Amino acid sequence: MAKVIVNVDDAVKVEASRLYESMGLNLSTAVNMFLRQSIVDNGLPFTPKAAQRPFTRDTDGYPIVKFNMDDPRIVTPKVVNGGVVLPEGWDDDDD
């Protein structure tokens, strides 16, 4: 059997070893399973993704959300004398 030498952070090794031990595996068996599954999948046995970035926040700590104002689904209301005028075709069954 061939040996594979991998450099990993000490904390990662400890945490991964604990995880696999809780599943009844040792680190060597888990790595062997990973490599075998990579062969079966003809690639990584999972889809790598970049971590989702948190919202950029303003000086008060509120998230800054950007909208595409050219999107036809975004309706900018008409304001007259401080009140919003709804479109004529807008029908609200609640009133």
From TrEMBL:
Task: Enumerate the InterPro entries for this protein.
Answer: Arc_rbn_hlx_hlx, RelB/DinJ
Q: Which GO terms describe its biological process?
A: regulation of DNA-templated transcription
Q: Which domain of life is it from?
A: Bacteria
**What is the protein name for this chain?**
Translation repressor RelB
